[in-house]
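Reference record
================
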Amino acid sequence: MKYFVPFSFLFLLLAGNLQGQSLEDAQRWFSEGAYTEALPVFETALQSTHKNMVKKHIEIYPALGKIYFSLYQFEKSEAAYTKYAELLLSQRKAEAAAAVQGLIEQAGRAARMLSRCEDVQLIDSVIVDKNRFLKSYLLSSESGSLQEQNGRIIYENPLQDKRYYAEKKEGLGKRLFSEIKLQNDWEDKKELSIPSDSLADNDFPFVLPDGLTVYYASTDKSSIGGYDLYITRYNFHTNTWLAPSQMGMPFNSTANDYMMAIDEVNKIGYFATDRFQPEGKVIVYTFIPNEEFTPLETDDEQALIHRAQIVSIRNTWKPDVDYDAYLQKVRENIQNEPSQSQTNFTFVIDDRRMYHSLLDFKNDAARQAFRKAQEIEKTILQTEESLEDLRREYAFAADKKEQQNMHSLILSKEENLQSLQYQYKLFVKNARNYEQFRSVPGEEMLE
């Protein structure tokens, strides 16, 4: 007896077999990390009207969730993970469904973070070995210093009498600690009791000169990918650290992001990330910190994703800004900055204010004027020493001709010294007036 099988059923059966073969390929591609090849096959499978086939292959959903997440399509990722959890619950696998909840929440956080991507100017980038990335951080002495010792990153404050670092705590993850320098020894070790996931690693600290604001990286459960960047502040009123705020995109990504450092004097910042990098390499980005949060305004979803991922730093640049000159100026400022003994000074502004650091200045023009005065003061000292040497040589010159030549040189240096002393007084005056009045009445600053 012959049985008649409807053509439509044969078509579905054949399509199901072909789909099954394609899914095997897609699953292999997915396991190999070939997401772009696997994605269209998975998406096509979900469009199938054969519901039993979809239920049979519910592993498509977590795979799609991971692929969408890697592509910064976070809302689609959240939807895929949510559907997966629903299917698990329908199969009475409550424990497995609960385990997916963390992925759903992570995708949701990433989606919100993407929607508020910051419009920040990234002005330089360099790919370096992971174990040598600190060499790319150029900081003024007023910002403190970063160094690597025995496999851990240490931040030391501008006065070189306090340092911060991470250390593994028994039964927990890494925690941040501080120590103060008494004579030549580091003592008074204290933990920074920052609210955190107990098993998370907190590392890569950087402290602003106010001593109250700490940037660090953490693998906290709120992270969207390995290490994320966070910021916290110390509350003097309660003697506690505030709950940390997770930084947004483009600083954080689905990869590891860490070692945020900001030089407030030179208005420059750095952070490191291993996004798009091979094993053992990181990329260090240099950026101009915004004075206040500035969201990126665009209706182009792909442009938003590219800015969050940092596909190109040129996409972040503003028109008519010479970033090469900006970087060169920063490098010159740091290379030519006064010595440590000169950066800790006493400068009277008025009867109520006395400054001891460049960061005490509230007015940028005043800070630059005083910095210039410090540079001139250094030149004055060098010129005075040179004059003393010339005068000694003049006194013991072999003949009058040699004395005449040296006499002309001495007169020239004395004139130069007088000019330097005048400039020094003027820059000091300008610094004081700018800080007091925000301007110098009837007088322009020297350049």
Q: What stands out?
A: The chain has three domains: 7-115, 121-334, 338-437. The two ends are 104 Å apart (CA to CA).
